[in-house]
Amino acid sequence: MFARLRSDIQCILERDPAARSTWEVITCYPGLHAIWLHRPAHWCWNHGLKWLGRFISHLARWLTGIEIHPGAKIGERVFFDHAMGTVVGETAEIGDGCTIYQGVTLGGTSLYKGTKRHPTLGRDVVVSAGAKVLGGFEVGDGAKIGSNAVVIKPVPAGATAVGIPARIIPSKQGESADVTEETKPKFQAYGITQEDDPLSQAMRGLIDKTGSQEHQIALLWQAIEKLACAQRGDCVPDDAAREEHFEADKLNQLVGK
């Protein structure tokens, strides 16, 4: 038991640069208090003491601002960072090493009792501030949910979900979408990655392609002008026809490149 408590504290010290000491974490982190209060509530729920489990959960909500249903399953080293206004539903499952920020909802879309109504988070999932994960599907290991995203379908392992409704940025070679050249991907606070919204990526691709096509067209005009002048022998090439006016760099800056 004490080893698990130490693990709870250590995961906060590792992921939150504002945490300066063990004593500060124990006394001033409501996310830790919510986890510790959830465990007896979950025990009561599983042993037939439903009302007592709900009452402990209710007290935890009043004390921490984090509402976790006593039926929810929470793994080890889970960190509720700030997490004011976070709601975790009855059949939700949170895997080891997950990080959940403020305003997150792990909610259900079904009214049928006894069914899997809430999401299952794999290991090391990051759910950013304001995100809503709704339904009884799985979010794969190492996945990231962007701030204010509304996720209504499964997220593959290592992928990133952003937008409303959420669009999926797939992982690269089976790894997280924000991996660097390091052997182990570093923790990304709030799920921020080096990748951007997939629509922005598509826009950048179109901008780059259009710029390349305009360059090729300018080269074709140059070749045509030279051939025409060579045949007539009495004209000056029209430089204006070969100028490139498409401002690809400026447009890329507008979409966030």
Model regions low in confidence, pLDDT < 50 over at least 5 residues: 178-183
The residue-averaged pLDDT reads 82
Strand content: 5-15%
Strand order of the largest sheet: 3-6-9-12-14-15
Structural class: alpha/beta
Count the E strands.
15
Q: Determine the number of helices (DSSP H or I, runs of at least 4 residues).
A: 6
Give the termini separation. Answer: 48 Å
Profile the largest sheet: 6 strands, mixed
Q: How much is the radius of gyration in Å?
A: 26 Å
> Into which percent range does the helicity of residues fall?
25-40%
The H-and-E topology, N to C, reads as: HHHHEEEEEEEEEEEEEEEHH
Q: What is the general shape? A: elongated
Tell me what the structure shows.
With 257 residues, the chain is an alpha/beta fold. The chain contains 6 helices and 15 strands. It has a 6-stranded mixed β-sheet with strand order 3-6-9-12-14-15. It has a 5-stranded parallel β-sheet with strand order 1-4-7-10-13.
Précis, in short:
Helix content is 37%, strand content 13%. The protein has 6 helices and 15 strands.
Show the helix and strand layout.
Blueprint: H1 2-15, H2 22-28, H3 30-46, H4 50-64, E1 67-68, E2 73-74, E3 79-80, E4 87-88, E5 93-94, E6 99-100, E7 105-107, E8 120-121, E9 126-127, E10 132-134, E11 138-139, E12 144-145, E13 150-151, E14 160-162, E15 167-169, H5 198-232, H6 248-254
Helix pairs in contact: 3-4
